[in-house]
Amino acid sequence: MDVLHISASPKGERSASRRIAESFIDEYSRQNPDDSIRELNVFDPLPPAFGRVESIRKFAPFFGEAPSEEGEAAWKTILTVIEDFDQADKIILSSPMWNYSIPWALKLYLDNIMQPRITFGYDPTTMEHRGLLRNRPLQLILTRSSTAPGHFVDFQLPYLRFVFDAMGIRDTRVIVADQTTKPSVEDREAYLALFDDRARSAASEF
């Protein structure tokens, strides 16, 4: 199995989402020693830019336009990112909440891989997205300071559920640590340690 861990925190060893993900990955590796686990930190290196050239190339087929050489070169880079993502048999995504949503580098990564006619289709009759990727297990490991799952300002979990579902990845499992702000380093570590058993249990079923 090829397992892809998408890490969306720039804080390294000081990241709460990474801390819980490590417990999950350690247990998964212990139980599945032959599986390959590779990490993609979206902050290092950053995903390819998705600006004017990429946007024009993206919609060229819909507008009946011939792509420019610059656009084709940029699009090859986008396709490489998608291919790297799609080769994974299982996906782990660890991410903090930033300003009630996801970090900008993760959004940029998703803007790269969410492409019409490649990772999702659209039915104009029902106005629904149709995933074009194969379904596979997706483990979300999410942290936030003080926002409970299901609260109306939680734009992290609902957004991630939707975008992966739109691409066809629906076997989604979720761990959320929603009270990571503590008065001391020791209190924070004690809180995160509460998720070790849950992470290991989830890994055994992944």
Keyword list:
206 residues, alpha/beta, Rossmann fold, two-stranded antiparallel ribbon, 7 helices
Mean pLDDT: 96
Integer count of domains: 1
What is the top-level CATH class? Alpha Beta
- According to CATH, what is the topology? Rossmann fold
**Beta strand %:** 15-25%
Helix content: 40-55%
Q: Based on helices, strands and strand pairing, what is the structural class? A: alpha/beta
Characterize the largest beta sheet: strand count, sense, and whether it forms a barrel: 5 strands, parallel
Output the CATH homologous superfamily: Flavodoxin domain
Please provide the ordered H/E string of secondary-structure elements: EHEHHEHEEEHEHH
Total strands: the figure is 7
| CATH architecture call | 3-Layer(aba) Sandwich
Gyration radius, in Å? 18 Å
Distance between the termini: 12 Å
DSSP summary: helix tally: 7
> What strand line-up does the widest sheet have?
2-1-3-6-7
**Low-confidence runs of at least 5 consecutive residues:** none
- Global morphology: globular
Description of the structure:
The chain has 206 residues and is α/β, with parallel strands linked by helices. The protein has a single domain, classed as Flavodoxin domain (Rossmann fold). Helices cover 41% and strands 20% of the residues. It contains seven helices and seven strands. Strands 2-1-3-6-7 form a five-stranded parallel β-sheet, covered by helices on one side. The chain has a two-stranded antiparallel ribbon with strand order 4-5. Strand 1, helix 1 (16-31) and strand 2 (36-41) form a beta-alpha-beta unit. Helix 1 (16-31) packs across helix 7 and helix 2 (52-63) packs across helix 3. The N and C termini lie close together (12 Å). The mean pLDDT is 96.
